[in-house]
Design goal:
The complex is a heterodimer.
Chain A: E1 2-6, E2 9-11, E3 17-18, E4 25-26, E5 32-34, H1 36-51, E6 56-62, H2 68-77, E7 81-85, H3 95-109, E8 114-118, H4 129-137, E9 141-152, E10 155-161, E11 166-172, E12 175-179, H5 191-197, E13 202-205, H6 246-259
Parallel strand pairs in A: 1-6, 1-8, 6-7, 7-13, 8-12, 9-12
Antiparallel strand pairs in A: 2-5, 3-4, 9-10, 10-11
Helix pairs in contact in A: 2-5, 3-4
Chain B: H1 4-24, H2 28-34, H3 41-47, H4 66-77, H5 81-100, H6 103-109, E1 118-121, E2 137-141, E3 144-155, E4 162-170, E5 173-180, E6 186-191, E7 202-213, E8 217-218, H7 224-260, E9 262-263, E10 266-267, H8 272-300, H9 306-331, H10 333-336, H11 342-351, H12 359-371
Parallel strand pairs in B: 1-4
Antiparallel strand pairs in B: 2-3, 3-7, 4-5, 5-8, 6-7, 9-10
The chains are: A alpha/beta, B alpha+beta.
Amino acid sequence: MKIVVCIKQVPETNDVTIDPVTHNLDRRGLAGVMNPFDKNAIELALNLKDSRDDVQVALLTMGPDDYAESLREGLAMGADEGYLLSDRAFAGADTLATGYVLAQALKKIGDADLILFGRQAVDADTGQVGPIVAEFLQQPQITYAASLRLSGDNEVTAERLLEDTKQTLVAQLPAVISVRSELNTPRYPTPRNIQLSFAKPLTTWHHDDLDLDDTRLGQAGSPTIVTKVYAPEPVKRELTKLAGTPAEAASQLITALKGRQLI
Amino acid sequence: MPSPTSAAEKLLLQMVDDYTEREISPEDMPMDAAGDFPAGFIQKLTDTGFLGLMLPQEFGGAGFGPEVTAAALNHIARGNASTAVTLEGHFKTIDQILKFGTPALQQELLPSANDRIFAFSMTEASGGSNPMGIGSTATREGDHWVLNGDKIMITNGGLAQVYCVLVKTAPHELSVFVVDQDMPGFSFGKREDFIGLRGTPVGEIVMDHIIVDNDHLLGKVGDGGRIGDSAHDDARILMGAVLTGIMEHDLKIATDYAKERKAGDQPLTALQVTHRKVADIAMRKETTKLLFEKAAQLKANGQPYSEEAAMAKAYGSRVAVAAGDDTLQILAGYGYSREYPVEHLIRDARAMEIAEGTVEKMRSAIATAEFNK
């Protein structure tokens, strides 16, 4: 079984400023660390590796050369190999352009049964790249998984934890899963594994190593335009609990929706 | 691209900082209050691979060198000096087995140093800085040795499972043997109730007719004094690192408090009296850091480091007590309260004016080294 965990390097500080021109995060000159939520995804992969003999765990990231540090940390946690996608042509990518390059790299890596993501990156907080990769690869996706198990030879069952509800979903493999931090406590890389991680393969792929449509890359391939950055006012929503049997609840729902002229 | 060595060191110290912040620092005050480490603490430290940090990779360790090992203990001591000293006692003992043990003894013992704590014991009731005054003996009987005696005030005594013990093999001859707590005739004695480094167990072992093979002798018969000195030297570098960590802890407490606290309308940061104290703490910290780093660098390069190691500990321990005192004064009543860690940082630093050779003995060693130049 091959698992690929997609990770991101984020600024170490919380004091990230907004570029006044592009309205994007200004990450220039900031020391980076692995996105903390990505460690939960790596831990999940390593737990599966610990429980079965046939699991290989690869890490994948896109960014400048120094993103190799986060890959190395993941290798020190126990992953088997790392891939860094680094090229000036990829710079300035939004989530769509990032997802595109990752998806093309995943096609080249090939045969991944599970593609894992942390629930979101702590710098931009979008949580979009996992679902975008799933769409590019035309694979089933489960986001915000708070528990996950292999429920058959070719199937995964995950409990999806949302703001006010839980869902249990089953997906056929290969699948893309993003995980919540409630899933596990990531292990620390041991001093010995830190040393040994430098003997593990870490491959850098540049633009010409991948099959890419140049119009989808970097800033030019990014439809996102940030016009304003602000903290939205929290929206208070009305919640009505429907009681009774499913049939009764459905009847109440239809009545309520008709009453509001929504159907 | 950084070299793999420096990248590994950076990643290690990042992990050490992360682990210290989450797992070790929160236990600092409880350990001081309880005079012990909490249940499961050493096991977690072991599971995270800290015991093998400087153990060569051929024995299952990580194989980090003297400079990184000292830096790691420095970072740990910023949050909890007791834990750093427990590791110091373990590492200095491994060092002596690496330097003086036969390949067979190393192969027998060192793989287990990844999950068993080792300790080096010299002191007896007759004193720690008077090795010829010890009463413990090893007597040769056929192809083995019989060990008898009491060793006290052992860093990690009672916690460690493997002990290097300094004994007399003749009236004026010192030797070091390695004993295991599982050997018949081995038992633990009392545990000390010290005022500082209270999370580091310090205790006694009793040897009652312990029989060991000749290959459990470190170096040669009569090498005990040399091996003891070597253990002190290695320990003193690491103690310099721990003392630097204590002063970094002091500095953080002092500056955080001074930024928040007002005297009248002025913040403490605007007062020259605060400037002087904070600057003194920072200079003491930085000087000790340079001393232990130099000693570690000399050791890594295979050069003599005994004098520099003594300086790091002798200088660092005295100024760390003074740094704690200045920090306490900045915090005033809060500094004197057990609710804050400042007072126990002073007690922790004070231990190192005595442990691994008193500051008086350090000064003699430094002066002798200077006379001999």
